[in-house]
C-alpha cells in the first residue's frame, strides 16, 4: 500500500495543504473533496487513495476554505468568486509540481470545481469523473442541503452527527467509526478560521456553482459520472442533466447508495474509475 504523504506548498500567496501518494512517474489524478462541514482531503479520501496510488500519482488538496490550507481573511463574498480562487489554487498546485496534465475526480462541490477547471483550462485535463456532483441543474435544495449550508446556525455535535449519517444510505456502513468521524469533523468545524470561511462562501446560494449548458456542451473530455440513487444532498436528476448535456459522458447510478459513493461503493467505483482512466472501460 502506498504511503500518504502530506505537506504545504505555496499557491497564490498562501499555503495549500496537500496529500500525495504514488509515483510521480505515473499519470496524475487530482481528487477534489466535497463542501460539507469539516470536509478535507483526508476526511474524504483517506481510505480511497490507496486503491488508486498503486497505478497513479494521486494529489488531494484541502480546497481553499477547508482544512489545513491557509484561510485568508480577504476573500470573495460569493460562491462564484470562491470558485474562481479555487480554480487558480488547483492550477497553481499543478504548476508548482510540474504536472502538465491530469485526470480529475470531484465529489459534490469538488465536482463543480472540476467542471470549472475544465471550463477555464481545458488543455490541462484529460479524463474527468464526477461523483454526486454539484454544478448541474436539479429540482432545488433539499432539506438536507439546507441543514448543511446553515450548519453554523446551530453548530452542535448532534447536528453534525445527523448530517454525517444522512450522507450515506446505510449508516451501519460507518459502524463504530461514526463517533470518531464526528469528533474529528466537529473539532475541525469549530476552528475560528474554518467557520469564517464556511459562512463567507455559503452566504450566497449554492446555485452559483451551476455550469451553463453552453459551457457543458463544449466540454469534449471523456466524463464518468457516478451517483448514489438515494443521495439526498445532490439528487440524481442533477447527474442525469449533466450526462444529457456533456457530449462524451457516461453515467452510473449506484443502488442503495447515498452521497458518499467513495465510501459506500468504494470497490465498485474504484474498478470503474481505474478502467475509465486506463481507457479500458
UniProtKB/TrEMBL annotation:
PANTHER family: AB HYDROLASE SUPERFAMILY PROTEIN YCLE, MONOACYLGLYCEROL LIPASE. GO terms for molecular function: hydrolase activity. Residues 29-139, 192-265 form the AB hydrolase-1 domain. Keywords: Hydrolase. SUPFAM superfamilies: alpha/beta-Hydrolases. It comes from the Bacteria. Transmembrane segments: none annotated. This is Alpha/beta fold hydrolase. The lineage of its organism: Bacteria, Bacillati, Bacillota, Bacilli, Bacillales.
Amino acid at each position: 500500500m502506498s504511503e500518504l504523504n502530506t505537506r504545504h506548498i505555496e499557491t497564490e500567496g498562501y499555503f495549500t495543504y496537500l496529500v500525495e501518494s504514488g509515483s510521480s512517474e505515473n499519470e496524475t489524478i487530482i481528487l477534489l473533496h466535497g463542501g460539507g462541514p469539516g470536509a478535507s482531503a483526508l476526511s474524504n479520501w483517506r481510505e480511497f487513495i490507496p486503491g488508486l496510488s498503486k497505478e497513479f500519482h494521486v494529489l488531494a488538496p484541502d480546497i481553499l476554505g477547508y482544512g489545513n490550507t491557509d484561510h485568508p481573511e480577504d476573500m470573495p463574498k460569493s460562491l462564484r468568486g470562491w470558485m474562481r480562487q479555487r480554480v487558480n489554487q488547483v492550477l497553481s498546485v499543478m504548476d508548482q509540481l510540474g504536472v502538465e496534465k491530469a485526470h480529475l475526480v470531484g465529489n459534490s462541490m469538488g465536482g463543480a470545481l472540476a467542471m470549472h477547471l475544465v471550463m477555464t483550462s481545458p488543455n490541462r485535463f484529460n479524463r474527468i469523473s464526477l461523483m454526486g456532483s454539484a454544478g448541474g441543474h436539479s429540482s432545488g435544495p433539499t432539506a438536507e442541503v439546507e441543514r448543511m449550508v446553515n450548519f453554523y446556525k446551530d453548530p452542535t455535535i448532534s447536528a453534525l452527527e445527523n448530517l454525517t449519517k444522512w450522507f450515506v444510505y446505510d449508516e451501519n456502513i460507518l459502524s463504530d467509526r461514526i463517533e470518531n468521524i464526528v469528533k474529528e469533523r466537529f473539532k475541525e468545524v469549530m476552528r475560528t478560521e474554518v467557520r469564517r470561511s464556511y459562512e463567507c462562501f455559503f452566504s450566497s446560494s449554492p446555485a452559483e456553482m451551476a455550469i451553463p449548458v453552453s459551457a457543458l456542451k463544449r466540454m469534449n473530455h471523456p466524463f464518468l459520472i457516478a451517483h448514489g440513487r438515494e443521495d439526498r444532498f445532490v439528487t440524481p436528476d442533477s447527474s442525469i442533466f449533466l450526462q444529457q448535456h456533456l457530449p462524451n459522458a457516461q453515467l452510473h447510478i449506484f443502488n442503495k447508495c447515498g452521497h458518499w459513493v467513495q465510501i459506500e461503493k468504494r470497490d465498485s467505483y474504484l474498478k470503474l474509475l481505474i478502467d475509465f482512466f486506463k481507457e479500458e472501460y
